[in-house]
Design brief:
Distance between the termini: 17 Å
Strand order of the largest sheet: 1-2-6-3-7-21
Largest sheet: 6 strands, mixed
CATH topology of the largest domain: Aminopeptidase
Number of domains: 2
Strand content: 25-35%
Helix content: 25-40%
Structural class: alpha+beta
Number of strands: 23
CATH architecture of the largest domain: 3-Layer(aba) Sandwich
CATH class of the largest domain: Alpha Beta
Shape: globular
Radius of gyration: 22 Å
Number of helices: 10
CATH superfamily of the largest domain: Zn peptidases
């Protein structure tokens, strides 16, 4: 089975706008697009000869090959972040140009999911006997941070003994920072603004923000642009909300919102101005991203995404943030606290995956800790493994998201060998 067929499957999946929360129904708990993406993935797996199951009206689904009493899990998600604006290619399609595959989800996480499916098909076609079944589990709420899909799976379906999620970096990830989300609220009338809107999700550095205010009795619109990136690496982006707040500083110098942003956030990415500049040896510095801002009927509301080092509890961030915000009449609510993942980097699963990666690439880089949050947090003994190779430009959550075509094909080979390393008795030289 050639790679062109794999590309065609990715194209069909990318054409589905699977942003969670749109057109939710009883039969589509995460939205119509997410349900459609899950249907497509399961139908593809059925055509390729896998056993499949749709769980609880599109809560999640899985497909598997092989036999054995235990299961190796591959956890992939089919939902994507909103496309945003400014694309040079159709966001919900697959475009190939200059060796790059463009489209929302090609690197996070539809491309890796398709590569894993075809890696499983290669094993099935080769007739290789497996010690364990191999099951790819499809989720639909990873990007929203809810993860109800994985919670449902854990409660109702067979748990894997170990496995990986193709949703981070090579060579392997043995730790993920604590994920904290906060909602900050203040009365709109005290902000000095009529309206303000920016950002699409808390885990994305916003690339646009605009506000309306009165200047000398006349309504004025102020806009600012930035560069989107994943909130786990805010240094790769340019926050449009921060840029707008800087513009507002000269127009509304007494606004509590403006002063709070200037004094406690500014251009800082690591919580220094907030009094929570935490760091540890294993996972490095805390990162902080103001992901969204908007208004209700009476309030201005901001969402802040924080990735805290693995050795710290939530209170080490929450308490300084609340103290700082209270000085400006801003209330703080902790809306999400996802504990960190911290595994033995010398454990059996990571050792096997590293051996595969090193044999395939010749790269002997060490496993790392990341700020991103993957499905590795959802079940025990799951490791984030690829798809991004060292030195590649990271474009997930950005406009013109892309994956190198050669990397996409290489993922198929690496994941095939990784599956065999976890599910069979074959030595690496035979896989």
């Amino acid at each position: 089975m050639n790679n062109e067929e794999m590309k065609r499957s990715l194209r069909e999946l990318c054409r589905i706008e699977s942003v969670a929360g749109i057109d939710v129904s009883d039969d589509a708990p995460y939205g119509a697009g997410c349900a459609q993406a899950l249907d497509y993935a399961l139908e593809l797996c059925r055509r390729l000869g896998f056993e499949t199951k749709l769980c609880d009206k599109h809560r999640c689904g899985w497909a598997q090959i092989g036999a054995g009493e235990t299961v190796v899990g591959i956890l992939a998600h089919l939902d994507v972040v909103p496309a945003g604006s400014g694309w040079s290619y159709p966001a919900y399609d697959l475009s190939e140009e200059n060796g790059r595959l463009y489209g929302r989800g090609v690197s996070d996480d539809k491309g890796p999911a398709i590569a894993c499916i075809y890696a499983m098909k290669d094993i099935l076609d080769a007739g290789i006997s497996l010690k364990r079944r191999v099951r790819i589990i499809f989720g639909q709420s990873e990007e929203s941070g809810e993860w109800d899909d994985m919670a449902y799976y854990r409660e109702h379906e067979e748990l894997p003994v170990f496995g990986f999620t193709p949703d981070a970096d090579f060579p392997a990830i043995y730790g993920e920072k604590r994920l904290l989300n906060y909602k900050l609220t203040m009365p709109l009338e005290e902000s000095g603004l009529l309206d303000i809107r920016g950002g699409s999700a808390s885990n994305v550095v916003p690339d646009h923000c605009e506000a309306r205010l009165l200047i000398d009795g006349r309504e004025k619109c102020i806009t600012a642009s930035g560069k989107a990136s994943h909130a786990s690496t805010p240094e790769d982006g340019e926050n449009a909300i921060a840029a707008l707040a800087e513009k507002l500083a000269s127009l509304l110098p007494q606004s509590p919102f403006v002063r709070f942003y200037r004094d406690r956030i500014g251009s800082s990415l690591n919580g220094e101005l907030m009094g929570c500049a935490l760091a540890d040896i294993e996972s490095g510095k805390l990162t902080m991203n103001v992901g969204t801002i908007g208004v209700t009927d009476v309030n201005l509301v901001m969402e802040i995404d924080v990735r805290a080092p693995v050795t710290f509890e939530a209170d080490a961030v929450t308490e300084p943030l609340r103290r700082a915000a209270a000085e400006y009449g801003i209330e703080v609510e902790l809306t999400q606290d996802t504990p960190p993942v911290y595994m033995d980097k010398n454990g059996d699963v990571i050792r096997r995956l590293l051996a595969v990666y090193r044999e395939e690439t010749g790269d002997f880089s060490e496993p790392t800790v990341i700020g991103g949050g993957t499905y590795a947090r959802a079940m025990d003994n799951i490791v984030a493994f690829g798809p991004m190779f060292p030195g590649r430009e990271l474009t997930e959550h950005q406009r013109n998201e892309y994956l190198l075509a050669e990397d996409f094909c290489r993922l198929r080979s690496i994941y095939r060998k990784a599956i065999l390393a976890l599910a069979s008795d074959l030595s690496l030289i035979h896989i």
